[in-house]
Design goal:
Radius of gyration of chain A: 24 Å
Order of helices and strands of chain A: EHEHHHHHEHHHHEEEHHH
Strand content of chain B: 25-35%
Strand content of chain A: 5-15%
Oligomer: heterodimer
Order of helices and strands of chain B: HHEEEEEEEEE
Number of domains of chain B: 1
Structural class of chain A: mainly alpha
Structural class of chain B: mainly beta
CATH class of chain B: Mainly Beta
Radius of gyration of chain B: 14 Å
Largest sheet of chain B: 6 strands, antiparallel
Helix content of chain B: 10-25%
Distance between the termini of chain B: 20 Å
Number of helices of chain A: 13
CATH topology of chain B: Gamma-B Crystallin, domain 1
């Protein structure tokens, strides 16, 4: 069996990666793609598990061929906290800038997208031709065993993307008055240069801070993702998932962010976001109900197929 | 589109990297391999690509690689990608266009290894991509 390694960028630089424990396992869970209900949001949540399911199938196959690295990458999964997890039919409080005093302090405006970006599985980087060939063979085996998986992934992602676009298109216009109220509240509390209508059309959060007459803070440089050159030829390594990028708020941005948070409370902003989201979600769910129902049936059928094709292997092992 | 100015730290980091790492966070010269996330610039050819292992929360200053001449181009990835091919083992990839105080729009790209055209609302509007959304 090939030895698996865990590497942080620093350890790579020092050529001192740690060998991982020998006991690596994978469990393939087809039930994860069964929708909990027939609601579109529930179907899309289940469909989003197709990527993980493929990863489990691939890791299982690779493990059988003596390559534990994909399984190790799965085991490193770091989930994003629920309040920062965006689905097709949700809007997060932080989507509109800092939403709590803690977020005001840690992320200000300029880093408010950072907590959404963290998490994921470990990253596999290969410079081993044998590993790459085996991964290709395993993917081909998955396609033969489950010919509907790949088209279903494409179909489900296309529906999810279409639904997200329709949801935002319906929710946002309803939120504009609430956003303008919140920004007007900030303007009246000591930021006369802030022009609410113009701020809404600015795509750069730090420019909004500048518009208010405040010097923005500083984002840490985006961490360079691991690359092929980080791994010696002939080896495969597994890197941890991305950490949350950090942001240093300036004193002025902190004060502005805290005012922005207090104005959300003063104008009932989050209740209005909730109401607009609920209305838009209901409309989109009705509009795309048939596509959701068809996708749900196909997900159930795929899960059934996986269960059926798993049984003989289980019997052989016992 | 969202713009961050590169800090001095970022510049030093890039200069210290190898030529391949600067050109491509994936493997630099070859095709879109297993575990890579690959962006393609044009609608009608696959000549200009940018490959990654992993996500990147800031596409600013990342440039496409010319696969014919094996050279780094001046063509920026941010707001210029047409297709994405996701060969990640277990993760969907989310390509996002941040919109300031308006909700972000995004496209999720499945990890089935197919080249997939980005939807109109994200095509030529990308700011970043993340794994396992």
């Amino acid at each position: 069996m090939n030895k698996a390694w865990i590497c942080t960028p620093l350890l790579v630089a020092l050529s001192a990666c740690q060998p991982l424990a020998d006991s690596v396992g994978v469990s393939v869970d087809p039930d994860a793609i069964r929708p909990a209900s027939s609601r579109l949001s529930s179907v899309l949540t289940a469909a989003a598990e197709l990527g993980q399911l493929r990863g489990e199938l691939l890791a299982e196959c690779m493990l059988g061929e003596g390559f534990p690295q994909p399984a190790e990458a799965l085991a490193m999964r770091r989930s994003v906290p629920e309040r920062y997890r965006t689905t097709a039919l949700t809007l997060l409080p932080i989507d509109f800038g800092p939403s709590t005093d803690v977020e005001a302090r840690i992320y200000g405006f300029g880093g408010s997208t950072f907590p959404i970006d963290a998490g994921g599985d470990g990253v596999v980087v290969s410079r081993d031709d044998k590993f790459d060939r085996e991964a290709d063979l395993c993917q081909a085996r998955i396609e033969r065993r489950l010919p509907s998986l790949s088209p279903l992934q494409t179909q489900a992602a296309a529906l999810s993307n279409k639904v997200r676009a329709a949801f935002v298109e319906r929710a946002y216009p309803r939120l504009v008055p609430a956003l303008l109220d919140r920004l007007e509240c900030v303007r009246r509390k000591g930021y006369p240069k802030l022009a609410p209508a113009r701020a809404l059309h600015n795509e750069d959060m730090r420019a909004i801070v500048e518009m208010a007459g405040v010097t923005p803070g500083t984002p840490a440089p985006a961490a360079e993702p691991p690359g092929r050159s980080d791994v010696p030829i002939g080896e495969v390594r597994v890197f941890p998932p991305a950490s949350t990028r950090t942001y240093t708020t300036s004193p002025g941005e902190l004060k502005l962010s805290e005012t922005y948070v207090s104005c959300a409370k003063a104008t009932n902003f989050f209740d209005k976001v909730q109401a607009a989201s609920d209305d838009a979600r209901s409309e989109v769910e009705v509009f795309h109900a048939r596509e959701g129902s068809e996708l749900a049936d196909e997900l159930e059928a795929l899960a059934d197929t996986i269960v059926r094709t798993q049984e003989p292997e289980t019997e052989r092992q016992s | 589109m969202r713009v961050f100015l590169a800090s001095a730290g970022a510049v030093v980091m890039v200069m210290a990297g190898s030529a391949a790492a600067v050109a491509d966070n994936g493997d630099g010269l070859e095709g879109c391999n297993q575990y890579e996330i690959c962006f393609n610039r044009d609608a009608d050819n696959y000549r200009f690509q940018k490959h990654y292992y992993g996500g990147d929360s800031d596409h600013a200053n990342n440039k496409f690689w010319d696969k014919v001449n094996n050279s780094l181009t001046g063509s920026l990835l941010e707001d210029n990608a047409y297709h994405v091919r996701n060969r990640d083992g277990s993760c969907y990839v989310r390509v996002t266009d941040w919109n300031g105080l308006a909700p972000s729009v995004h496209d999720d790209i499945p990890n089935n290894g197919n080249w997939i055209r980005l939807n109109d609302n994200v095509r030529n509007q990308n700011n970043e991509h993340k794994r396992c959304p």
